[in-house]
């Protein structure tokens, strides 16, 4: 048994050749069921879905991917100066991966960075996405506006976006301390109790790899320069498919003048539906039952 297999009973490990290297993932559920793509967030991997994926696989063909640079997927350097982790580029690569698995159109649920890739993909190629669930984010421009208004909010965004190799070198001095500190800070209980020890082991394995630390920083650097959002907002483009916004009470929606749902409704998803989850940022692990119920109801509608 490979490490992590026991977190996903009934799922098969996948190695998929993509346009920019190999992607790792797991697939479960009937091959004839409607496909559902799960994309994780920072600083985690596909393992964050382990408490939801088996139940979701009762009605869907579930594919949980490690994002490029995370988990066990390839972590290429940007090299040419064009950020390899720009959300538009990642969306295009994920479409290619899903096509190689035989899925042209699919539902998508993304958390954190995975949700950012998800809404960019859904704006660029609306015909690909049946339904879109966004877990614990607001649009990127809204997020940066909040940080500008309150620099103490989400200091990891400007830190990780600094030019290389400043943040990489700082993190490499104590990667477990840095990343575990974020996990603690963003949970409702401010500890690691919500995380399965087997999932934490997988997260820590990735944190120990310098190329993956660099990839995570590149991910955030791309988030500081993703111009398509502003162009789409100016053009009045909106998400064409049904959209679900799940927001954590103890993290994203805590003490905010505007809820996450309201932020989406005034920007890219005027018809979005939403729910608040009594949880910190990592709702799939901190509050799996209400998160699962909300996703199941949305996917079945």
Number of strands: 8
Question: Which strand order spans the largest sheet, edge to edge or round the barrel?
Answer: 1-2-4-3-5-6-7-8
**SS element count, helices:** 13
The main pleated sheet reads as: 8 strands, mixed
Strand content: 15-25%
Low-confidence stretches: none
* Overall morphology: globular
Mean pLDDT: 95
Roughly how many Å apart are the termini? 37 Å
Describe the structure in your own words.
By secondary structure, the chain is α/β, with parallel strands linked by helices. Helix content is 40%, strand content 16%. It has helices at residues 53-56, 87-100, 113-124, 140-149, 156-160, 166-172, 175-186, 197-207, 210-223, 228-235, 260-265, 283-286, 288-300; strands at 12-18, 21-28, 35-39, 61-65, 106-111, 129-135, 243-248, 273-277. Strands 1-2-4-3-5-6-7-8 form an eight-stranded mixed sheet, sandwiched between helices. Helix 2 (87-100) packs across helix 3 (113-124) and helix 6 (166-172) packs across helix 9. The mean pLDDT is 95.
């Amino acid at each position: 048994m490979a490490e992590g297999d026991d977190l996903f009973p009934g799922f098969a490990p996948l190695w998929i050749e993509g346009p920019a290297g190999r992607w790792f993932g797991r697939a479960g559920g009937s091959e004839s069921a409607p496909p559902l793509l799960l994309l994780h967030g920072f600083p985690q991997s596909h393992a964050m879905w382990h408490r939801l994926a088996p139940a979701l696989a009762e009605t869907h063909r579930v594919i949980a991917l490690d994002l490029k640079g995370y988990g066990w997927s390839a972590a290429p350097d940007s090299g040419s100066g064009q950020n390899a982790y720009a959300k538009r580029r990642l969306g295009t690569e994920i479409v290619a991966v899903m096509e190689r698995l035989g899925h042209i159109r699919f539902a998508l649920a993304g958390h954190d960075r995975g949700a950012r890739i998800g809404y960019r993909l859904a704006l660029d190629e609306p015909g690909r996405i049946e339904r879109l669930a966004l877990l614990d984010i607001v649009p990127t421009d809204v997020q940066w506006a909040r940080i500008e208004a309150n620099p103490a909010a989400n200091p990891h965004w400007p830190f990780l976006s600094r030019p290389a190799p400043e943040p990489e070198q700082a993190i490499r001095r104590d990667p477990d301390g840095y990343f575990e500190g974020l996990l603690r800070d963003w949970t409702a209980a401010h500890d690691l109790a919500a995380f399965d020890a087997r999932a934490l082991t997988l997260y820590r394995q990735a944190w120990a790899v310098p190329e993956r630390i660099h990839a995570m920083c590149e991910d955030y650097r791309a988030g500081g320069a993703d111009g398509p959002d502003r162009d789409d907002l100016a053009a009045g483009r909106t998400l064409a498919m049904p959209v679900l916004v799940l927001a954590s009470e103890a993290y994203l929606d805590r003490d905010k003048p505007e809820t996450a749902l309201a932020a989406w409704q005034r920007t890219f998803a005027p018809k979005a539906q939403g729910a608040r989850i009594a949880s910190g940022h990592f709702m799939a692990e901190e509050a799996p039952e209400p998160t699962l119920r909300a996703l199941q109801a949305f996917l079945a509608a």
